[in-house]
Specification:
Blueprint lengths: L7 E4 L13 H7 L1 H17 L2 E4 L9 H9 L4 E2 L7 H14 L3 E11 L2 H6 L2 H19 L5 H4 L3 E8 L6 E11 L5 E11 L3 H5 L2
Parallel strand pairs: 1-2, 2-3, 4-5
Antiparallel strand pairs: 4-6, 6-7
């Protein structure tokens, strides 16, 4: 019988600079001591307290084969790669609809305005890279260009995040999507999602 979980930890801190999951442990310690310390804490909590861990940021904290194996052995689930409560949420809603109706996508341009601490962190190119990979990868995963090459193999997907302090926690994500349908006729969809950045995880995950 599975052992009961003693607690669930949700990680929602501002993301740090991206690092390859194949990077050596010594290099991680040298360039990202805080991230290694977090991974070690998660490891210890899983082992000692059977703590479940939900990763709400696009980092590599639990993307380690040994961590996945430890999770299985201790029956303590780990999951997540960004909570997706803003613009990426819109992508995960729209993209399955396009695929279900076999609507093709050519360019998909996304821009964000954000003025809180998260926006300040993402103003750094190295820190933005992790978020960019999360936003770009979600379309690849959903649309499956290898199965629908005529519809999705040539998508030009661009993402921008602009730090604008006067906006504060009010986040605005704008998408301009060029689609094509029957006989290849071009159409456009424009989405402007205005939301609260820090409240997003609380609204969607409580």
């Amino acid at each position: 019988m599975p052992s009961p979980l003693s607690s669930v930890v949700r990680w929602a801190r501002s993301r740090n600079r991206t690092k390859s999951s194949t990077i050596g442990a010594a290099r991680i310690v040298k360039k990202g001591k805080n991230k290694m310390e977090l991974a070690e804490q998660v490891r210890d909590d899983i082992r000692e307290f059977k703590t479940s861990f939900a990763n709400g940021a696009p980092n590599l904290t639990v993307d380690i084969p040994a961590m996945l194996e430890l999770s299985r052995l201790n029956e303590a689930p780990i999951c997540g790669k960004d909570f997706k409560t803003g613009q990426t949420l819109m992508k995960t809603i729209l993209a399955p609809g396009f695929k279900a109706r076999l609507l093709g996508v050519s360019p998909w341009y996304s821009t964000n305005i954000l003025g809180n601490r998260d926006g300040e962190v993402l103003d750094d190119p190295g820190s933005f890279k992790t978020k960019e990979e999360s936003k770009l990868g979600v379309l690849d995963h959903i649309l499956q260009a290898e199965l629908y090459p005529d519809l999705y193999k040539d998508i030009f997907h661009k993402v921008r995040i602009n730090y604008y302090p006067p906006r504060g926690d009010n986040k605005e994500g704008s998408d301009n999507i060029d689609i094509f349908g029957w006989l290849g006729y071009p159409m456009q969809i424009k989405v402007d999602f205005l939301c609260r950045d820090s409240l997003g995880p609380s609204i969607f995950f409580t």
